[in-house]
Amino acid sequence: MPIVHTPQVLVCYCATTDIAPPAEAEIAALLDLEEQERYQRMRPPVALRFFQGRRMVRQLLAQKLYCDAQTLRFTYSENGKPGLACESPWRFSISHCDTAVVVAIGTVELGVDVEAIHRQRGKLAPPWRKPQNFMHAYNAKQVERCGSDGEKARLFTVFWTMMESQVKLADSSIFRASKHLAITLQPQGGNSWGTVTEQAREYAGGDCYWWSYEGLDKAGGDIVSLALRERGAKVELLQWSKAGAVLPAPLLAIVSPPIKN
């Protein structure tokens, strides 16, 4: 019988408080010239998170490819989806917000997104107060049915990170996802499966599944969603320490109870 290899996925979480500021030599070593230009144009907090994402993904991939992290270079699609410039079965996705930087690498196509639950941009009202402006009506109605503002903010963030991760998986756009992507939650165990509803399956380009987690920052301040085509993939969670090393212990012990409809 042929050997069947289970797809492998690593999701690595780093709280912004655990980011070690880079030295100039590290910036020059790990970022290519285009990335260095982007880094210099960013505001300091955003630049630090941008660098941390590149630092994490290069070191994680270097471990899998048995190479020097400094030699890895990326290419980008027209929509900005990154990939390895060399031939490799490994794929990756990067996301960051005010609370964390998250990187996912795997032997299958994937997309990852992290977002703070309680966020507000300037004087604008929080987005979960008018969910219909940001997502499919099917999901907006579920947010509106929540009993409290806290529950609305949480469920809105679950759907938003699912949308963003699917956009990265499919190399699409958040505008298209907000119009066409409708998601049904199916809570299981210590995390939550989401599946694309039938009316949106054609938009999604086939099957799409998610793992969504909260509590990876131990304070429940953000949501992480991972989008995959492979339901049977083995997903492992890791945490990045202040020293910059990846801790071998998985984070499953601090994942919250199931996300409910």
Task: Describe this protein's structure.
The protein is globular. By secondary structure, it is α+β, with helices and mostly antiparallel strands. A hairpin with a 7-residue loop joins strand 9 (about 210-215) and strand 10 (about 220-230). The protein is built from 7 helices and 12 strands. It starts with 7 loop residues before the first strand and ends in a 14-residue tail after the last strand.
Backbone CA Rg: 18 Å
Helical fraction equals 25-40%
Q: What is the count of helical runs?
A: 7
Number of strands: 12
N-to-C span: 42 Å
- Major β-sheet profile: 5 strands, mixed
| Uncertain spans | 247-261
Shape: globular
Structural class comes to alpha+beta
Approximately how much beta-strand content do the residues carry? 25-35%
Summarize the helix and strand pattern as letters: EHHHEEEEEHHHEEHEEEE
Mean of residue pLDDT values: 83
Strand adjacency order, main sheet: 4-5-1-11-12
